[in-house]
Every structure is written in C-alpha cells, then in structure tokens.
Write a structure and sequence with these properties.
With about 350 residues, this protein is mainly beta. The protein has 3 helices and 19 strands. It is globular and about 60 Å long. The protein starts with 6 loop residues before the first strand and ends with a strand.
Length: about 350
C-alpha cells in the first residue's frame, strides 16, 4: 500500500459549541469538510453507497469532531455505554496522540448517541490489550436525525453526530501528557460501520447471506484508507494538524514531517519481519534476509537510508537516521519512535 494518509488542518473554534448534533454554529460553518469516506481497503473495495464526511475544531478544553452520514434508514438498538456499538450502524474515532502506534483511543457512537470508549495499549496484532474500563470523562455527544429513528417504511436523509472530547483525558497518551500545541500533528482516523438491513415484521433486521442464517458482513467506510479490513493499524491513519488560527479567519498549509516517511520505510521492514516470524517461528537475524536494500523512503530527498538491526529470534529493533538529527526506531511490538 502506498504511503498516502489523509491530512486535515483543524482550526480553533471561535466560540464554545453547543454539542447537539445540529452543526449550526458559525464555527462549524467555517470548518472544511473532509474528503468523502471510502472503503476501508481503499480503491480495492466497492464505492460506499452513502456519503460520509467529517470536520474538526478545537479550543483550550475540547477536541471537537462532527460527522454527516447519508442514511435512508436510521436505526439503533444499543443504549448502554460500552456496549459493542459496531453491532449497530455507527461512527468511530481513533486517535494516536504521539504517533507511536501504542496507547491510542477508540470511540464509537450510534444514532442513539450511545458511546463505547476504550484505550488500547497496543494494536491487537501486537498483543493489545484493550482497556474497556477506560472512559472519556466529560465526553459530550449530540446526535441529530434528519428523518425518523427506528421507523421502517419511510425514507430518511441521514444523521449527524457532534462530539466534544476533553483534552484533560486525551492528553493521557500525548507527548508530555499535554494537549496539542499549534503546529502539532496527531494521528487520527474515522470509520463508519454500515449494515445491510431488511424490514421484517415491521422492524429492521440485518440481512442474511442468501440461503443461510449467517449475517452479511458489515461495510466499513473510512476517512484514511487502511488497505485491509482492520482499523487497528495506526500507521495508516490520517494526520490532523492543529492551527492557532480561528476558523474562518484564514488558512494555513499542512506541514509534513519528513521523518514520517522514514517511519513508513521501517514499518515495511516490520511487516516483513512478521511474515518471517509467521512462516518460521522466529525473526530474521539480518536485514539481508529481509531484502531491506529495496526499501527507501518515498517522496523525500537528502537522506541515505541505511537501517541497522539488533535482533534475536524473539525480538528486534531497527533504527535509521532521519532528518534534522533524528534517529527513527521500530521494535518487534510495532512501536515506532524518534530520538535525537
């Protein structure tokens, strides 16, 4: 998969937002919509049937996210917090404040406004675990249904969700345990789970595979494509850059950190090491065994990519020089970090 995460510049909210799902404040009107969501696998997947898009704002207390979802049949069943919300149609937020792919947050919300919030210490592929008892204390969720909720037989327009997440919680896994500063970039992605439904006995029912009692798999539509049906690959999430400018007063360009492309080159070696481990029961001892010479950071000049590796059959660390005196590292558990 090419390295092409989505990008977004989040501006400051000009005033406190009323989190009701309606998105009718001037701040939201001034914030730009994201690109429409695409299939989680990218261009390999089918085009989404309904449009989904998101926008973001921030202030000293909250990170605000809004999403608009076209939907002819708005429904929801789950009302208890921390239920497995993706069993309903939902909207999901993933946030990795320091971009190391560890200690990140997940929030799911359905059309009833029911949240499921959790923290993952590592992605599931690297052993997890998920901390389901973790809550975003002070979370605000507003939903506005453009149509009717849980009423089959009519055609709805869709639903919007508006979310305010306090920095006092989101800073837990952030650099220096602080909210972002202007110019900082956090890894973020959004997902929408959409089930095919039929109307049975006057109620919505998930559609089955023809001739079976098995559910059709859900659709997963995302902001930044993952290249696989797996949201828990934080290295493929988008970037959100936080601006000091108030929404509507101007624009600023997104500034890419070239060390992110060095991280991606190391991530490709991590993928190769996983394949070696799965095939042989242990990691490769040399970079030559990984054909590392055919990997280069794409889209950047001015760097000689010569990684070095310290490895045993059960662990490894690969490091490479980056830009501005940085050294970029990755280990067998997928964590990536920068030293200077």
């Amino acid at each position: 998969m090419p390295f092409a995460p989505r990008r977004y510049v989040s501006y400051r909210a000009p005033s406190r937002l009323n989190v009701d799902g309606k998105l009718d404040e001037p701040g939201w009107a001034s914030a730009s919509w994201s690109d429409p969501f695409i299939d989680i696998e990218g261009d390999r997947g089918p085009r989404p049937r309904f449009r989904t898009r998101a926008k973001m704002l921030w202030d000293d207390e909250y990170f605000y996210v809004a999403a608009e979802m076209e939907e002819p049949d708005v429904w929801g069943t789950l009302t208890e917090r921390d239920s497995v919300i993706f069993h309903d149609n939902d909207f999901e937020i993933f946030i990795d404040p320091d971009g190391d792919t560890h200690a990140y947050y997940e929030l799911e919300v359905n059309a009833l406004g029911t949240p499921w919030d959790l923290m993952l210490l590592k992605p599931y592929r690297d052993g997890g675990p998920a901390i389901h008892a973790w809550d975003i204390a002070g979370l605000q969720v507003g939903v506005d249904v453009r149509g009717t909720l849980n009423r089959p037989g009519d055609a709805d327009e869709g639903w919007t969700v508006e979310i305010a997440m306090p920095w006092k919680i989101l800073r837990e896994a952030a650099p220096d345990h602080q909210p972002p500063r202007p110019g900082d970039r956090w890894r973020v992605n959004f997902s929408r789970v959409e089930w095919n439904v039929d109307v049975t006995d006057g109620r919505y029912a998930k559609r089955l595979r023809p001739g079976t009692t098995d559910l059709l798999p859900e659709n997963n539509w995302v902001w930044s494509p993952q290249g696989a049906i797996n949201m828990h690959m934080p290295e493929r999430w988008g970037y959100v850059q936080f601006s000091s400018m108030r929404a509507g007063t101007g624009t600023e360009p997104f500034v890419e950190d070239p060390n992110e492309r060095v991280k991606w080159a190391l991530r490709r070696l991590y993928y190769r090491q996983r394949r070696v481990r799965d095939a042989n029961g242990g990691y490769a001892a040399t970079l030559e065994a990984l054909n590392a010479s055919d990997i280069r950071p794409i889209g950047v000049d001015g760097i000689d990519f010569h990684p070095v590796m310290d490895a045993t059959t059960t662990r490894y660390e690969i490091a490479a020089k980056g830009f501005d005196g940085a050294v970029v590292h990755i280990s067998q558990d997928g964590r990536v970090w920068v030293t200077r």
